[in-house]
Amino acid sequence: MKPRVALVTGANRGIGFAAARRLAGLGYRVVVAGRDPEAAARAAAEIGGVPLLLDVTREADVERAVAFVGAEFGRLDALINNAGVLLDRETPGLTVDLEALRATFEVNVYGALRMAQAFAPLMVRQGYGRIVNVSSIMGSLAHAGPGYLAYRSSKAALNMVTRVLAAELKGTGVLVNAVHPGWVRTRMGGPEAPLSPEEGARALVWAATLPDDGPTGGFFEGEGKPLPW
Q1: pTM for the complete prediction?
Q2: So where are the chain's domains?
Q3: Catalytic residue numbers?
Q4: Per residue in 95-106, pLDDT tens?
Q5: Hey, what's the torsion of the CAs at 223, 226, 227, 228, to 10 degrees?
């Protein structure tokens, strides 16, 4: 059998890179996608992956990604929508800039949906696929609190995208789940976060490598602990 193929967005650093490295260690051919071509190339070289210039907010980039994966591998087994932004840190919802809200949704919601829409047909044709949307417990309505309105709202919307796509792809062999990696020491999470990128990546890799009878349409942390919507 040919090795499985995974594409990880925002994979040149942090949780995305840790997930890409772990998947490579499991024998996957990993497409290391990122907006900075030099950073993506360095990260890919470190794990033996394939670099790909990809801005998920650009339709042309996503179309090129589909063409590249199709020509290079002819399949995609796991799509990890890890690219994300946090633009309203320490900003009350009553004063959040609407442009920051739009920019947040452009990456965290529209970008992930754009990627899923682009690659799901390939997964359906091959009868197998895992789509992993990197969400956050901050997007849980059950855990909602003050501040971070743009980020929280985008992750709540991403959770709904997950539910809808999972329902539409039921029975095709394509599983779609949202995961919360935890509070991780990354550029976004900051140095005080308790988890390493490697620890945070466990949730992503778990969802990307689910067995055929694994869950779909769920929201999880770690390796399969359900979270409230």
Answers
A1: 0.97
A2: 5-226
A3: 151, 155
A4: 999 999 999 999
A5: 170
